[in-house]
Amino acid sequence: xxxxxxxxxxxxxxxxxxxxxxxxxxxxxxxxxxxxxxxxxxxxxxxxxxxxxxxxxxxxxxxxxxxxxxxxxxxxxxxxxxxxxxxxxxxxxxxxxxxxxxxxxxxxxxxxxxxxxxxxxxxxxxxxxxxxxxxxxxxxxxxxxxxxxxxxxx
Length: 154
Hints:
Elements: H1 2-33, H2 43-70, H3 89-113, H4 117-144
Helix pairs in contact: 1-3, 2-3, 2-4
């Protein structure tokens, strides 16, 4: 029975790793596509572009913290709920990573064709607001679902 549990755990770990790879790939593609600065960009546009890249990283980080805050807890969202009504980490990473990656990829393509200072600022503000909202949700989750203190070794 123990060998069967280990093989299930290994399979779940591989699935989770695969979902993480997909999420990170989408995220990197989204940020990397717009990181090349056009030759005519001035210092104000370069600053706005750096702000956009930072806001994209903050959004991705807030998604990761939100996933971490939901692990092992009851989940209200049926898309992220697994068996027993608890948060499904693999689904959460896959869906949240795919959504965030798709948003950033859309922004990157939009910025590639309309790389004005205003566009960078608009997307940076949207990403920053989204990251702040997700961070607030994560803080709430950590308060509602406190993690048990680690047990001392005997």
